[in-house]
C-alpha cells in the first residue's frame, strides 16, 4: 500500500494588542470599562509592590523562601480577570497576582511564606486551591475539578496556571489528554517565563511554541504576549466562553519573563545575562499598561502617585496583621490542621501522641 498524508491543517495564532510604548491595535482592544481597566492596573501594581516587600522581609529573615512574581503580573491578572467569582482557580507556586485579584488577604500570604500552614487554609466559600509546589501536579487536579463541574452540569469553569517547565512533566500531558477526551471546562494557562529554574525553553523542547502542544490533544491553543494584559485577557475570555458553552478545554501560552529569581533560594546571575534582563525590563507589563491608561486619560500621574501611597499603606497594614496572627499561633497541634479533610489514622495517632507529650511537659 502506498504512503498517504494525513492533513491536519492546524495553525497556532499569536496575539498582541498593547505594545511596549503603550499603543494599541484599536481593532483588537477588548470591551472593558474604565473601572475594570483601573482594577487590572491596581492589582498588577499591588502585586509588584507586595513582591518587593516580601523580598525585604525575606532578606531580614522574617519569612522563608518564596517565588517572586515580578514581571509576570499581566499573564496572571489578565487571565484570571476573565473568570467569575464562582469559577475555580488552581495555582502553581508563583500566582501571587492572581490570588490578589481573587481577593486573597496579603496577611495570609505572608503567613504562609513565614512557615505557618494556616496561610494555606482554604475559606469555606473559596474555590481557589492552595499553592502547589511540586511542578505540574496541580494540572490533573484542575482537570478533575473541571470533570466534576461537567458531571454536575454546572456552568463553572476551571483555570489553572503553570510554567514552561511544567510542560516537560507527564502530569501536563495526562491532564490535557484527559481534559480533551472528556471535554471538560478547563483553561490551561502556561506562563512561559523562558526558564524552568535555570533550564531555558530551548533545552526543554524542540517545539517552536508550547501552545502547539494543544494540537496533539485536539484542543485550541494560542500564544499571546504575556506582558500585554489586554491580549492575555482577550485570549482568556475566548477560552472561558468556549469552556462555559461546553466546547471543552483550551491552552494559552503567555510569553513573559520573571524579572527576579526563580525563588529566593536561586541565583539567576549564574544562568542569564544582565543584558537579557535589561531587554525584558523594557517590556515591563506595568509600565506599558500605565502608558496606555495615561494616554487614554483613564489614569493621571497624580492618580498613580496617590495609588502608590494607598498601596504602601495596605501592605504595611497587612504585615502588621500577619505579625499579630503569628503571635497568636502558639499551639503546636495546629500543624496537623489544614492538610486533610479527614485526617488519616496515623496522623490522628501522631496528634494524640504530641498532645500527651505537651501535657506531660506542662505538668
Give a written overview of the molecule.
The model has no long low-confidence stretch (mean pLDDT 95). The chain has 363 residues and is of the alpha/beta class. The chain has a six-stranded parallel sheet, sandwiched between helices. Helix content is 43%, strand content 9%. The chain has two domains: 13-330, 3-Layer(aba) Sandwich (Rossmann fold), CATH 3.40.50.970; 332-363. The longest helix has 28 residues, at 301-328. It has helices at residues 34-59, 73-80, 96-101, 106-113, 138-151, 170-181, 229-244, 274-281, 285-295, 301-328, 345-362; strands at 13-15, 88-90, 158-163, 186-192, 195-196, 199-200, 221-225, 250-255. It has eleven helices and eight strands.
Q: Beta-sheet strand percentage? A: 5-15%
N- and C-termini, Cα separation: 87 Å
In total, how many domains does the architecture comprise?
2
Q: Percent range for helical residues? A: 40-55%
How do the strands of the widest beta sheet line up side by side?
Answer: 1-7-8-4-3-2
From N to C, what is the helix and strand string? EHHEHHHEHEEEEHEHHHH
Quaternary organisation of the protein chains: single chain
Helices and strands, with pairings:
Blueprint lengths: L12 E3 L18 H26 L13 H8 L7 E3 L5 H6 L4 H8 L24 H14 L6 E6 L6 H12 L4 E7 L2 E2 L2 E2 L20 E5 L3 H16 L5 E6 L18 H8 L3 H11 L5 H28 L16 H18 L1
Parallel strand pairs: 1-7, 2-3, 3-4, 4-8, 7-8
Antiparallel strand pairs: 5-6
Helix pairs in contact: 1-2, 1-9, 1-10, 2-7, 4-10, 5-6
Amino acid at each position: 500500500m502506498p504512503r498517504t498524508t494525513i492533513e491536519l491543517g492546524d495553525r497556532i495564532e499569536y496575539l498582541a494588542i498593547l505594545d511596549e510604548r503603550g499603543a494599541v491595535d484599536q481593532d483588537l482592544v477588548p470591551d472593558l470599562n474604565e473601572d475594570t481597566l483601573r482594577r487590572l492596573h491596581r492589582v498588577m501594581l499591588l502585586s509588584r509592590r507586595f513582591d518587593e516587600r516580601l523580598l525585604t522581609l525575606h532578606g531580614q529573615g522574617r519569612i522563608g523562601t518564596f517565588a517572586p512574581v515580578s514581571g509576570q503580573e499581566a499573564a496572571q491578572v489578565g487571565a484570571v480577570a476573565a473568570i467569575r467569582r464562582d469559577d475555580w482557580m488552581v495555582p502553581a507556586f508563583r500566582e501571587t497576582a492572581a490570588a490578589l485579584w481573587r481577593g486573597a488577604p496579603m496577611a495570609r500570604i505572608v503567613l504562609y511564606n513565614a512557615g505557618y500552614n494556616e496561610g494555606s487554609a482554604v475559606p469555606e466559600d473559596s474555590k481557589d486551591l492552595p499553592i502547589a509546589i511540586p511542578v505540574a501536579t496541580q494540572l490533573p487536579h484542575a482537570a478533575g475539578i473541571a470533570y466534576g463541574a461537567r458531571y454536575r452540569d454546572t456552568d463553572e469553569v476551571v483555570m489553572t496556571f503553570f510554567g514552561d517547565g511544567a510542560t516537560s512533566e507527564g502530569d501536563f500531558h495526562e491532564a490535557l489528554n484527559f481534559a480533551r477526551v472528556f471535554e471538560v471546562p478547563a483553561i490551561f494557562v502556561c506562563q512561559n517565563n523562558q526558564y524552568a529554574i535555570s533550564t531555558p525553553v530551548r533545552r526543554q523542547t524542540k517545539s517552536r511554541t508550547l501552545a502547539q502542544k494543544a494540537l496533539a490533544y485536539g484542543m485550541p491553543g494560542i500564544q499571546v504576549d504575556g506582558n500585554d494584559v489586554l491580549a492575555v485577557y482577550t485570549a482568556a475570555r475566548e477560552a472561558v466562553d468556549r469552556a462555559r458553552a461546553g466546547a471543552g478545554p483550551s491552552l494559552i501560552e503567555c510569553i513573559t519573563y520573571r524579572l527576579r529569581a526563580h525563588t529566593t533560594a536561586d541565583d539567576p546571575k549564574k544562568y542569564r545575562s544582565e543584558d537579557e534582563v535589561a531587554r525584558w525590563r523594557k517590556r515591563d507589563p506595568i509600565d506599558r499598561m500605565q502608558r496606555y491608561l495615561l494616554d487614554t486619560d483613564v489614569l493621571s500621574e497624580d492618580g498613580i502617585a496617590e495609588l502608590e501611597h494607598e498601596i504602601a499603606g495596605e501592605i504595611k497594614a497587612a504585615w502588621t496583621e500577619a505579625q499579630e496572627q503569628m503571635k497568636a499561633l502558639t499551639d503546636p497541634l495546629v500543624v496537623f490542621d489544614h492538610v486533610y479533610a479527614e485526617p488519616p489514622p496515623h496522623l490522628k495517632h501522631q496528634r494524640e501522641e504530641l498532645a500527651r507529650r505537651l501535657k506531660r511537659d506542662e505538668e
